[in-house]
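ARCHIVE CARD
CATEGORY: sequence design from structure
SOURCE FIELD: tokenized fold
FIELD CONTENT:
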């Protein structure tokens, strides 16, 4: 709704009105019906269970026939809408950095047997620790994150994943297109901090960093607690002949005995978790092998993709619950130090440096 609320800056109202005009221009067929349908959807109280309910909203001034006509025969210029979203004011971190999150949300369609391209989507059951695989459509979302404690996000893109898709390749292409639209809109200039891409467990952040190495982005994610990474090989002693080792000592998440002294350690007193300690080890890389996504890599040595492992340990969880076993568990890859939020247990975030040698 284009209503100016109390204490809202005038420029915010102008930006909202401009966006509504741009959104209306993106509706290339049955635009009036679709525009009022969008207003009705946004202004309705409570969940909307049927389309016909929206035709009763005051914002929808047409009959229910126009509503179904707009849904069935309306057209949306998706490319123009994506460019419009990239040009809006973006939420930023304290240092002015753009922070984008990538995740998958499932639209469950268990009873729609004739719906094309359904996949089995992972969903959590009602019981503790239980999970189910339900037919549905998975959608990959990219959103700009607000700083601080808030659930508001600025959604920038969404694509549906098909059964034949390589999820990491689709995600890399989606992130690339979003970042390129942000660059074209002037949201990032040379000298600005790199755009931080945050992903959850389940993403191969090492491969994402390799595919996006030409963009001004850094990736932060979570890794499994049983991962093993490697330090760079030590320098060759003077006068020694023979092959130089390909990698250095192991860094096993489950074995603290393999952890050398961290490069950086910070300690913070928190309200809900007591004493929080973050430690970081730089220049660690996974061992890549020629299978799966790397099977078709050109002849020669596979790339060495280095990053920073960040371990976050808290004194206790909410309700004075124990944070669990000690060790480096959870998170995944990026270049810059950052915190990773896991299940409350110790976690590691590996920062991939996007520098492939």
């Amino acid at each position: 709704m284009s209503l100016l609320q109390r204490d809202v800056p005038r420029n915010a109202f102008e930006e909202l009105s401009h966006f509504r005009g741009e959104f209306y221009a993106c509706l290339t067929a049955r635009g009036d019906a679709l525009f009022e349908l969008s207003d009705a959807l946004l202004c309705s109280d409570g969940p909307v269970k049927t389309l016909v309910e929206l035709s009763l909203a005051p914002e929808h001034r047409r009959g229910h026939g126009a509503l179904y006509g707009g849904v069935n025969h309306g057209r949306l210029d998706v490319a123009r809408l994506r460019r419009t979203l990239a040009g809006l004011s973006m939420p930023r971190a304290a240092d002015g950095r753009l922070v984008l999150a990538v995740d998958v949300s499932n639209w469950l369609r268990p009873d729609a047997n004739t719906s094309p391209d359904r996949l089995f989507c992972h969903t959590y059951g009602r019981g503790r620790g239980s999970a189910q695989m339900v037919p549905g459509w998975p959608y990959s979302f990219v959103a700009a994150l607000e700083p601080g404690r808030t659930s508001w996000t600025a959604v920038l893109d969404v694509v549906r994943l098909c059964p034949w898709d390589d999820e990491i390749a689709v995600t890399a292409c989606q992130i690339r297109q979003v970042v390129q639209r942000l660059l074209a809109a002037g949201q990032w200039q040379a000298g600005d901090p790199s755009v931080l891409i945050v992903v959850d467990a389940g993403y191969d952040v090492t491969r994402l960093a390799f595919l996006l190495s030409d963009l001004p982005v850094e990736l932060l994610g979570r890794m499994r607690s049983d991962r093993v990474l490697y330090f760079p090989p030590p320098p060759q002693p003077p006068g020694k002949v023979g092959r130089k080792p390909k990698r250095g000592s192991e860094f096993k998440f489950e074995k603290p005995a393999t952890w050398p002294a961290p490069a950086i350690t910070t300690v913070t007193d928190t309200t809900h978790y007591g004493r929080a300690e973050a430690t970081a080890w730089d220049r660690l890389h996974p061992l890549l092998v020629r299978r799966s996504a790397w099977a078709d890599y050109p002849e020669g040595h596979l790339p060495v993709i280095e990053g920073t492992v960040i371990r976050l340990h808290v004194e206790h969880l909410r309700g004075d619950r124990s944070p669990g076993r000690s060790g480096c568990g959870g998170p995944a890859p990026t270049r810059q130090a950052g915190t990773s939020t896991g299940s409350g247990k110790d976690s590691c975030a590996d920062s991939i440096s996007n520098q492939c040698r």
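CARD ANNOTATION: The helical segments are 10-26, 31-43, 51-54, 64-73, 78-86, 167-184, 205-211. The first strand starts at residue 27 and ends at 29.
SHELF: design records, drawer C
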